Amino acid sequence: MRIVLVGPPGAGKGTQAAFLAKNLKIPHISTGDLFRANISKGTELGKQAKAFMDAGNLVPDEVTIGMAHDRMTQPDATNGFLLDGFPRNVSQAEALDESLKADGQKLDAVLDLEVPEDEVVKRIAGRRICRNDSSHVFHVTYSKPKTEGVCDVCGGELYQRGDDQEETVRKRLDVYHRETEPIIDHYKAQGLVVTISALGKVNEVTKRAMDALKGDK
To answer: Any idea which residues carry the catalytic annotation?
Structure first.
């Protein structure tokens, strides 16, 4: 299957992408991984991306699209892939359509993870990270530390990242609504969108997604 995963920040796209890709036996292709891989390998596209990033500028669509196309044509993606974080806007979606068409391929589904805006803010603004190890993550509601402000694992101080603060989260949501959400209508016109609720436990959402992709909605 060739799938695009879409949803607002805090919808759990990264977590669900990993589980879905494993269940479907297809590679999980995320924009972040594409950038890191191309930059670390020193590819021509990676050098271009790094130059823009070092200058504090956004990486142009054509560079991102080039990386995505290169990754989608790798041997492990012959039977499909799951795109996470790409396309990010309608122009990228149109370019993806053309790229797949040129390769004699097409998308099978666009999985839309739906989460109420207040829940998104609650999920992200409630996160607390350990200063000693950023992999130690807690939540003021869903995964409280035993002692407030203290990491259960190493005793380090827990803090709220700047981009997790409510004002910043709402700005990120505004960007999502303005730039990314319109791709849902783009794909609805092609009959590709499958919308599921991303509320509940991780395994419940994964099952919901798998059932929807199989047509058991």
So the answer is: 13, 88, 127, 161, 172
